[in-house]
Write a structure and sequence with these properties.
Layout (H helix, E strand, L loop, with lengths): L10 E2 L4 E2 L5 H5 L4 E5 L2 H14 L21 E4 L2 E5 L4 H17 L6 E4 L4 E2 L7 E8 L6 E6 L2 E6 L4 H14 L4 E8 L19 H13 L2 E5 L2 H11 L2 E2 L1
């Protein structure tokens, strides 16, 4: 964004951080990996797990929420890893990603990998399987993210880094604790009708129609359903960040 250079101060409002009040390079300059997920508590548990795995944990160590000045998102850091919550749905993760990408820019980070982790609904897979996303697709199975900007519809690509997918698949094989597959992830605009559920407040289709739709999704390569992947992929692509 060329407008950022003209700003005297950039306030990351939803993180309660700003370039005029915080030293971004000192705080985040060593970050190489960012993991994002919906729940604040899960992202705190994740950073504690990563600290153990990297040998950076200490007895009784707590991990403070860097964004404690707001209740919108939570952020934790250990070594080169940043763990950030994004809430639920495209609007929530979109706001978080705008500010996260600016944070990494102001911190002068390079060679960043961002990975979204979280639960999803599987299609044709055993419960507990892990899906490494090849493409994020919309509810019509197209690999695109559609957004209205200044009253005009903009279509953005949702392809993700192929090499990173291969590396994550290899990690899954080496760990060998759960079924790991590569597939397309369908991103929907809501949890109920958008995902073909029968238990929402409104449902104007029957179970046969639902199962036909899910079969069509499976036949198109979709292996799981969630509500954030399309804008995540689109924003990583536009920012030149390796994401999965």
């Amino acid at each position: 964004n060329p407008h950022l250079e003209k700003m005297k101060e950039d306030i990351l409002y939803h993180f309660a951080l700003g370039t005029g009040t915080h030293d971004f390079p000192a705080m985040f300059g060593d970050v190489k990996f960012v993991c994002v997920g919906g729940s604040a508590s899960r992202m705190k548990a994740f950073i504690a797990y990563i600290a153990e795995e990297l040998g950076l944990a200490s007895p009784g160590c707590d991990y403070p929420n860097i964004c404690a000045g707001t209740d919108r998102y939570a952020m934790y850091k250990v070594g080169p890893v940043l763990s950030v919550s994004h809430g639920m749905g495209i609007p929530s993760i979109s706001i978080m990603l705008h500010e996260l990408i600016k944070l990494l820019y102001h911190a002068k980070c390079s060679n960043i990998t961002i990975i979204r982790i979280g639960t999803s609904g599987g299609i044709g897979l055993e419960p507990g399987s892990v899906v490494v996303t090849a493409q994020a697709v919309d509810a019509t199975f197209k690999p695109q993210f559609e957004q209205v900007v200044l009253g005009k519809t903009v279509i953005r690509s949702t392809n993700l880094d192929e090499q990173l997918a291969k590396e994550l698949m290899q990690c899954g094989k080496e760990i060998d604790q759960f079924n790991t597959v590569i597939g397309n992830t369908m991103c929907t605009l809501d949890f109920y009708e958008g995902q073909g559920r029968l238990d929402g407040a409104i449902c104007l289709y029957n179970e046969e129609e639902k199962m036909r739709y899910l079969k069509d999704a499976y036949d198109s390569g979709v292996r799981n359903i969630e509500m954030e992947s399309s804008v995540f992929a689109a924003m990583c692509n536009l920012s030149g960040i390796k994401g999965k």
